């Protein structure tokens, strides 16, 4: 892996781009300077629509989309709940479906190490910037220690530029959650069980279920966990 790259030049090159294709070319240049396997900018909106660019093999990109892997990908799900960069080793890779996903990814050439940076836009947009490689843990940690801060800066600069070029992809304004829906989602985000939430709000679990399903529908979420993460990322609830 590379020991350094010209941060100021990369930022200048990003600033001079005018299309997503040009952004992708700059990232390929960055990947080559860093001497890593892959680099990705990946958008998943509340409705599950995706776009971006990646240096992963086309076969894996197609497989990921065809199988809707974003619904179980620990990187996507874990970063929905975080605002800081995440080393893949910090994520939960247990569970039969996730292990099968990981095996499929590695068979398609996805490296065993990754570093993902969650990114959010002014209208609730969510994206990830990821660098990925195959190496041992010690080598990867040294790489992150050296380049982590600069990669975060690149990621946020990239995201700002990408949003300029993709305004037609920005999600519609989310319908506001009702006070009861906010209360329910906040308590769930704090780790309360459904029974505890219902007791705290002095409502039945049946009524609670209706609030949760209404909030999930408004947020365009696939499930309750996705709804909580989306509400957090859009500032609709605070914990």
TrEMBL record:
A Gene Ontology BP annotation from the UniProt entry: regulation of DNA-templated transcription
Keywords of the record: DNA-binding, Transcription, Transcription regulation
Coiled-coil stretches: none
Keyword Transcription recorded: yes
CDD domains xrefs: LuxR_C_like
GO MF entries: DNA binding
PROSITE patterns (UniProt xref): HTH_LUXR_2 (PS50043)
Family annotation (InterPro entries): Sig_transdc_resp-reg_C-effctor (IPR016032), TF_LuxR_autoind-bd_dom (IPR005143), TF_LuxR_autoind-bd_dom_sf (IPR036693), Tscrpt_reg_LuxR_C (IPR000792), WH-like_DNA-bd_sf (IPR036388)
Residue span, HTH luxR-type domain: 170-235
PANTHER family cross-referenced by the UniProt entry: DNA-BINDING TRANSCRIPTIONAL ACTIVATOR DEVR_DOSR (PTHR44688)
Name listed for the protein in its UniProt record: Regulatory protein, luxR family
Provenance organism: Ruegeria halocynthiae
